[in-house]
């Protein structure tokens, strides 16, 4: 059966554009320094550090500047410096007292700019993500500044943050959401303790615990759910499948997408999703590129599939409202002549089909097929 579905499988490294929203290589994470309590203490208290703030997991941005709002240890205020000092102590001691401190995660060092901060041979601007919702003194400090706003929706983030800023947001949001929703050990139900600057969770149980006592992985790490998004071409590669669901903005079309299931390869998952949603049999597959997706914590894997025939059938998994073949020439016209509207849809004025803006992996795939087929 597999040989009927995949004649050829290709992993391609050629992409339409070099950068992807939420996925620009902005900070060097220096993950090996997360467990170095002296480095963490030195970097978080450095006057050259940058604290990125979240309110109930929504990033706080300066709307006029179009950037994430940042402060540092010196500018955060005396009361909040005490909060940071307690967090530093609890991060080193690894006790349940850490759960009284703000949720904080070390994001990494920006090594692209000169900074006097240095630790051994490592230098850069230290970045930290901080959740403020449970600590009124942090919110009160931020209230003293003008033009600040939490970016609550995906559309808010898309409209305000550029590629670099979106990547810092994505990194921080995924870790802070994991820390805020994983309060208890999956092995024994005891409280968990954030350790290593908010990058791992340790079980607080002093007795036997299947997680804590594991010889291989005795701490918990963030969960990342893989999801696939597949741009589908007809057998002659001159038409592309446009799909839409009722929840999409008017006139916006995209691709077939879904989560990988346990026990599936990436290739088998693409095959299943394309058949379940559109009734099409994949004949050839190209894995193109990926995108972190912080809603809540996914890695989107972008693919291009060429199908065996063009007979669409939406009667298996009733998920799509519409799936239509669009000439590749029309897609190229939308990309070259379309303008972004208030719904973040690229569309030609007066027409009824558009695509998401180019901060999405969906349109990176549309651009890829337009350039390569």
Question: Secondary-structure blueprint of this entry?
Answer:
Layout: H1 2-5, E1 8-11, H2 37-44, E2 50-55, E3 58-62, E4 67-68, E5 70-71, H3 78-93, E6 104-110, E7 118-119, E8 122-123, E9 125-131, H4 136-142, E10 148-150, H5 154-160, H6 163-181, E11 192-195, E12 200-203, E13 225-233, E14 239-244, E15 256-259, H7 266-278, E16 282-293, E17 298-307, E18 322-327, H8 328-337, E19 339-340, E20 345-347, E21 355-356, H9 361-372
Parallel strand pairs: 1-16, 2-9, 13-17
Antiparallel strand pairs: 2-3, 2-5, 3-4, 3-10, 6-9, 7-8, 11-12, 13-15, 14-18, 16-17, 19-20, 20-21
Question: How would you characterize the overall build of this protein?
Answer:
- The structure is a single chain.
- The chain has 373 residues and is of the alpha+beta class.
- It folds into 2 domains: 168 residues, Nucleoside Triphosphate Pyrophosphohydrolase; 170 residues.
- 26% of the residues lie in helices and 27% in strands.
- The chain is built from 9 helices and 21 strands.
- The strands form 6 sheets. Strands 2, 3, 4, 5, 6, 9 and 10 form a 7-stranded mixed sheet that branches. Strands 1-16-17-13-15 form a 5-stranded mixed sheet.
- Strand 16 and strand 17 form a beta hairpin.
- Helix 8 packs across helix 9.
- The N terminus is likely disordered.
């Amino acid at each position: 059966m597999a040989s009927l579905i995949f004649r050829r499988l290709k992993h391609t490294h050629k992409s339409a554009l070099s950068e992807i929203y939420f996925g620009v290589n902005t900070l060097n994470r220096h993950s090996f320094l997360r467990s170095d309590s002296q480095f963490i203490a030195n970097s978080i208290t450095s006057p050259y550090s940058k604290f990125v703030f979240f309110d109930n997991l929504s990033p706080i941005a300066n709307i006029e500047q179009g950037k994430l709002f940042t402060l540092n240890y010196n500018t955060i205020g005396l009361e909040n410096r005490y909060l940071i000092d307690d967090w530093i102590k609890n991060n080193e001691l690894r006790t349940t007292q850490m759960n009284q401190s703000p949720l904080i995660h070390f994001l990494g060092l920006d090594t692209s700019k000169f900074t006097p901060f240095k630790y051994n041979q490592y230098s850069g601007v230290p970045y930290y993500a901080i959740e403020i919702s449970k600590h009124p003194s942090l919110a009160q400090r931020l209230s003293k500044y003008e033009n600040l706003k939490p970016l609550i929706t995906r559309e808010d983030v898309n409209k305000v943050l550029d590629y670099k800023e979106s990547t810092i947001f994505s990194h921080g949001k995924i870790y802070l959401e994991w820390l805020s929703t994983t309060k208890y050990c999956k092995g024994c139900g005891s409280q968990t303790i954030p350790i290593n600057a908010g990058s791992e969770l340790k079980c607080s149980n002093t007795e036997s615990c299947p997680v804590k006592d594991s010889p291989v992985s005795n701490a918990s790490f963030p969960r990342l759910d893989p999801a696939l998004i597949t741009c589908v071409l007809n057998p002659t590669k001159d038409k592309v499948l446009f799909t839409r669901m009722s929840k999409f903005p008017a006139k916006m079309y995209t691709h077939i997408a879904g989560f990988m299931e346990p026990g599936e390869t990436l290739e088998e998952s693409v095959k299943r999703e394309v058949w379940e949603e559109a009734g099409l049999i994949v004949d050839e597959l190209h894995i193109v590129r990926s995108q972190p997706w912080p809603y809540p914590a996914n890695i989107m894997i972008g693919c291009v599939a060429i199908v065996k025939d063009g007979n669409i059938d939406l009667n298996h998994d009733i998920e799509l409202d519409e799936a239509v073949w669009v000439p590749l020439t029309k897609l190229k016209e939308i990309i070259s002549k379309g303008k972004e509207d208030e719904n973040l849809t690229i569309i030609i004025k007066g027409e009824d089909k558009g695509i998401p803006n180019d901060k999405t992996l969906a349109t990176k795939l549309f651009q890829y097929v337009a350039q390569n087929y």
